[in-house]
Design a protein that fits this description.
Elements: E1 2-6, H1 14-29, E2 35-38, H2 41-50, E3 57-58, E4 61-62, H3 66-90, E5 95-99, E6 106-110, E7 121-127, H4 129-137, E8 141-145, E9 147-149, E10 155-158, H5 160-171, E11 175-179, E12 186-187, E13 190-191, E14 194-195, H6 197-205, H7 213-225, E15 230-234, E16 243-245
Helix pairs in contact: 2-3, 5-7
Length: about 250
């Protein structure tokens, strides 16, 4: 079983979406049904501005004030999820759009970050993996939006990379693939085929790994620590290539 985490900056590109659908259709036809986790960063930012807000980030993570939370809910659970599910259904791949709120799939707790206040941002604390197993057993592709229940009737926005790593660990995935807009982790302009914990920490310290790539590599390491066998960072055109992240 594979978890495919989709970057939010590509999902609104029809050509990219068509390539993604073709890849998933091939996987499903081979009885290798994946779980999709998607972001929506660019579209969330655009809607947040339209609603009168201003996107802010701390350590590569989106600050979620009330305007951002409204925008994230509308984009992640609405337009992006519907777009992905419709595209898959159109080629005969059954897909089911879910957020962490649906059936209390994912309960999250609020994140306290040393770099600053992130607002209504959470981290997964409990995942009902049986809900996902049921879908996979029926050859249905779960399409997951990283909005989660806070246990008190509210919602928390979870970074999609963090969410994907937690889902991968919870279901015992063989591989978690973080599909980005770059072919892997770039070191001196070249994709690093394999990196471990110490190398990643050094590359973050010297600024080689920065911005949105930081939560990707950190989530990859967290997934490995939780039992995911293989974590890969790549793009849609090189799904079997990219950078393999390992703990040792």
């Amino acid at each position: 079983m594979r978890i495919l985490k989709l970057g939010g900056n590509e999902i609104d590109d029809p050509a990219w979406l068509a390539r993604l659908v073709a890849v998933i259709q091939t996987m499903v036809n081979a009885h290798d049904v994946p779980i999709l986790v998607h972001g929506g960063g660019k579209e969330i930012g655009q809607l947040q501005v339209a609603l009168g807000g201003e996107p802010q980030f701390v350590a590569g993570l989106r600050v979620t004030d009330q305007t951002a939370l409204k925008a994230a809910t509308m984009v992640l659970c609405g337009s992006v999820s519907t777009r992905l599910v419709a595209a898959l259904n159109a080629v005969g791949v059954e897909a089911l759009g879910l957020s962490g709120v649906d059936r209390n799939l994912v309960y999250a707790t609020r994140v306290e970050h040393e770099a600053g206040d992130l607002g209504a941002v959470g981290k997964p604390a409990r995942i009902r993996a049986t809900i996902l197993y049921e879908a996979l057993a029926a050859d249905v592709v779960p399409v997951l939006a990283p909005m989660c229940a806070d246990g008190a009737g509210g919602t928390l926005n979870v970074n999609a990379d963090v969410f994907a790593g937690a889902i991968a660990a919870a279901v015992g995935a063989d591989e978690a693939v973080f599909i980005s807009n770059v072919p892997g982790v770039l070191v001196d302009g070249v994709v690093a085929p394999r990196l471990n914990t110490n190398e990643i920490q050094a590359l973050i310290a010297n600024g080689t790994i920065s911005g949105g790539m930081i939560p990707k590599v950190e989530s990859a390491l967290s997934g490995l620590q939780a039992g995911v066998k293989v974590v890969r960072i790549t793009n849609i055109d090189q799904l079997e290539a990219g950078t393999i992240i390992e703990a040792a």
